[in-house]
Amino acid sequence: MDYTEGKGWHDPQIVPYSPLTLDPAAMVFHYGQAVFEGLKAYRNQEGKVRLFRPDQNFKRMNRSLERMSMPLIDEDFMVEALKQLVAVDKEWIPIESGQSLYIRPFVIATEPCFGVRASHTYKLVIVLSPVGAYYAGGMKPVKIYVENNYVRAVRGGTGNAKVAGNYAGSLKAQVEAKEKGYEQVLWLDGVENKYIEEVGSMNVFFKVKGEVWTPALNGSILEGITRDSTIQLLKDWGIPVVEKRISMEDLHTAYVNGELEEAFGTGTAAVISPVGDLNWNGHQMIINGEKTGELTTRLYDEMTGIQCGEREDKFGWSVEVTE
Ligand code: PMP
User: Fold this and answer.
1) Which parts pass through the membrane (predicted)?
2) What Cα–Cα distance (Å) separates residue 247 from each residue in 30, 86, 193, 197?
């Protein structure tokens, strides 16, 4: 679907997967006007296909578009268009447990121009791709390196928007963490470099003395849809959730006192991911003996059960895709 100033969004179409042709001067190549989303469709044994809270992805996409001075989309239209797109060939969607259809909607600036300003033309594309199970060999806790030198997002920046540039700037830290033997980076705030924000593609939660802590949204943390769903589930189970500023010092103190019971990340890719090892300034924190905690497992089973239609969906999160 294309956007032209004065005309709005026009010509939505479903076409076979193929390369895009863009002008080398298209503004997306130079100034990063690029917004994206990520969600999944699940097909269960009866062949029913479900999307998980797709309205939330298009709401967030509009917040990102707004931050980037890009044209907004009609959220209801996008959900309906996505349902039609996924329904084109349901047989294509893997049925085995944990497998799914990954959906990547994105909007890019297409106008050829070297001037630094908002583009007048855009393209919205949705790419679909079957993906294997994230934990093919069972759940495995991730090792996370707390980043001190680089900053992912600052107040007033684009941290809470899902834009390409946020990820571009994070890759060097990821490479360096990998060299040190860690799989992912935990970002701290970009002001005092003290408070926990999020992991590269996940929000984070910590179970401390029976309470669950997660960093409060502050304008530089991505508003994860799995994060929101996790908070709603925990509250529904009567488990206290505290959204607050969490400093690494406070977390380390809880760890030293034996109060840090579990840690996990939340995001579309892994859904719920146990954290087994955190390295902060050389202090190694082995959480729950590098085992997947009880609450982490319970959340994973419940969330994936709802996504596949195997558990009761009391919040109405699942959207069925019909012909
Ligand atoms: N933070 C970042 C930076 C992300 O890229 C993602 C993945 N979209 C998340 C958190 C988790 O968000 P969600 O639960 O909506 O996938």
Assistant:
1) none
2) 36, 42, 9, 9
What's the CA gap between 218 and 212, in Å, rounded?
18
Q: What is the pLDDT of residues 41-99, one digit of tens each?
A: 999 888 899 999 999 999 999 999 999 999 999 999 999 999 999 999 888 888 887 88
Q: Closest Cα partner for 102 from 224, 268, 303, 322?
A: 268
Q: Which helix (H) or strand (E) segment is 66 a member of?
A: helix 54-67
Look at ligand 1, atom 4, and give the residue with the nearest C-alpha: 201
Range of the domain at 197: 142-308
**C-alpha 199 to ligand 1 mean position (Å):** 9
Say whether both 204 and 269 belong to one domain.
yes
Whether residues 79 and 225 fall in one domain: no
Which of 88, 103, 131 lies at the terminal end of a domain, its last residue?
131
Other Cβ atoms within 10 Å of 51 Cβ, number: 23
Looking at the fold, whether 233 and 172 belong to one and the same domain comes out as yes
Q: What DSSP line would sit under 125-145, residue for residue? A: EEEEEEE--TTTTS--PEEEE
- Quick check: pTM over 0.95? yes
- CB burial readout 139-169, b (16+ within 10 A) else e: bebbbbbbbeebbbbeeebbbbbbbbebeee
**In this structure, which residue's CA is closest to atom 7 in ligand 1?**
201
Pick the closest to residue 50 from 87, 98, 89 (CA basis).
Answer: 87
* Residue corresponding to tokens 């679909």: 128
Mark whether 195 and 86 lie in a shared domain.
Answer: no
ipTM: 0.99
Residue type for position 289: G
Distance 309 CA to ligand 1 centre (A): 22
Q: What does the alpha-carbon distance between residue 64 and residue 55 come to, in Å, rounded to a whole number?
A: 14
How do residues 249-306 score in pLDDT, each as one tens digit?
A: 999 999 999 999 999 999 999 999 999 999 999 999 999 999 999 999 999 999 999 9
From 60, 166, 203, 299, the mutation candidate for ligand 1 (largest count of ligand atoms within 8 A of CB) is 203
